[in-house]
Amino acid sequence: MSLPSAKEKWFARLHHALRDGTFVKLTLSGHRGSDEGLRNVFARRIELQGEPHLSLVHRYATREVTKNFPLVTACALLAPLAGEQFRHAHLFTTQKTLELDCREGRPPRLVESKPVHQSAPSTEHDQARPRLIASDRPWLQALGVTTAEGKVAKGMEAKFRQINKFVEILDSLLPKGPGRQGDPPSSPPTDAPGSESPAASCRLVDMGCGKGYLTFAAYDWLRRHRSADATVSGFEARRELVEFCNRVAAQHHCDGLGFHAGDIATASHDQVDTLVALHACDTATDDAIARGIDAGASLIIVSPCCHKELRPQLVPPPALAGALRHGILRDRHAEFVTDALRAALLEWAGYETKVFEFIATEHTAKNLMISATKRVVPGNRDAAAIRVRELAALYGIRSQQLAASLHFPLAGPKGDPS
Questions:
Q1: Torsion of CA 131, 132, 134, 139, to 10 degrees
Q2: Are residues 152 and 261 in the same domain?
Q3: Which of 13, 40, 127, 170 has the highest Cβ tally under 10 A?
């Protein structure tokens, strides 16, 4: 009978620590697998519905993906990672630290050292964490997101995370400026264009705002962290929601926050600094982008939904024709082409664009977001126009709502894409 390997010993210690309550955390580092961009995997123990789980965080260069699994499932998922896709696996317990060292050119070995942590951390899943919008804000209760005690209501956890993620993104994209005296400063900017500007934008319009979750959040955050006279307007086609949101705003003395009946294509508004349209269906997203450009908005943020317009027009390049005969792949490719065209048209219109994941896919499949920051110095419009037309020509796109609104011909003279 052969002796257990270093990896088998490491996993035996992991199982033992999970059983006897001495487990603190584990980390995998030194990635050498095929998952491009993956840097680390972290695991901590949590309790979900009274059952022990491991929360696995896959950290990539630009994002994190967190998923929770029962202990047996999590250990099975970790087995092909530790020592194979990662050179180093550290197991931290209250008794010792165990490193599985699997560097190239030497046999795997197990290295023991003194414990870093003297006690196991809390296993509560919803541990308190700083939020830009705290759960005790009174308007959250009025909208049904939280209870009278200031706790997130059952079934509204994803919505609360979405609210805070939206404000976090807004915080990173708006130019930095002084907030209200006595308020904590907003978090430092990421790599958002224009982040060195001295003043923050204070006139925000939310198109297709629905029940106003994100509209109230934007107003709350702007008033407390950017400007005491910030104004926020929400436009929504359903009059009953407009009336409801205006009642809530009045009840909570939200001066400068108002809701108006109207659809995106026809809604009228004054000057706009920031225009937001999240999950506007199909070409309504294009209408919102066009309204933002026409209004001279310095920042446009959209999260597209229901990409229907371009699918019937899509003529895939020969190399993709076989793959795109499958309906689901054709749908997803139509989404890609639609949003790529939107980003390219925004570049042509004088904006710096970013396309990124808004919120994790387990909360909503419609998680792509496009942000556009108006350039101080205009870019090369001719080069941008060529990029738009080449993309449209590649897929046989003859018409598109945003291009039509901007009076941008997708084909040059006599059909020449350049």
A1: -150
A2: yes
A3: 170
